[in-house]
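Ligand: zinc ion. Inputs:
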Amino acid sequence: MAVFTLPEGMIGFYKKHIDYISEHAVDPDKRRYSNPDEAPRHYIDMDHYGKYAYDSVPHQWNKAVMKYTEDTLKAYGIVPWHIEKMVYRLTQAFKSENMDLILHYSADLGHYIGDSHVPLHTTSNYNGQATNQKGIHGFWESRIPELKSEDYDYWVGKARYIDKPLEKAWMAVKISNAALDSVLTFEAELNKKYSPDKKYSFENRGATVMKVYSAEYTTDYNALLNGMVERRMRSAIITVGSLWYTAWVNAGKPNLDKFDNKDISDSLKLADKAEELLKSDSDKDIKGHSD
Ligand SMILES: [Zn+2]
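Predicted complex:
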């Protein structure tokens, strides 16, 4: 979706590879099982840092490390800093005109930006486990879009240049976190009015039957949220487009037409290469460029 926000000079290339990007947008979640460093990149537990975390946690990585130590930051999630890192990596990929890495980091960046827009990615109570609302994560993030996204308006305008990607990432986290109270409170309220047999229904998924939040319950919850899921999705889309665009501009707007006749190399090789990079310069660049 973010592809359609892009300007001339970028949109042709991204349209050509739109399938690759959407397919690989889920890669970071898959890596969580194989790479122990992966999980904290997807969230930040703002509640760990108190009520005013947005103000009390230093936004710059170096300063946050000084205040809390790297181990603590990693224990409670690093999504805003990882977005900054991915913007940097994508910029480097554009500069070196490495098509595989451009696509790889575009997909990755899109994923982490998406996560930062999800309220439940900003709390330790990420699946309602602390408030007896287990399952709310997938409810908000998957079930509502599954039933409602057909009606969403995905026209979000044109990608814009972002002066401070790190601040943009923090703002996404801040707004997500501000919405958290509604996410939990409205579901708890609604839950009181529903008996379990009306709250859930059973649906066939391929060969299995799954217990899901019923259509009625989903509709009522979505109405209480008053367009929140759509708003967060729209914001994620324009932010993804804008940060892709920003990386491209910062790299000197390389001509992407040169890749017209080039195909993506073996995706396995690409994934390996990227994983190697992640390991070899793991924290080097985030420290080097965040000042
Ligand atoms: Zn994720």
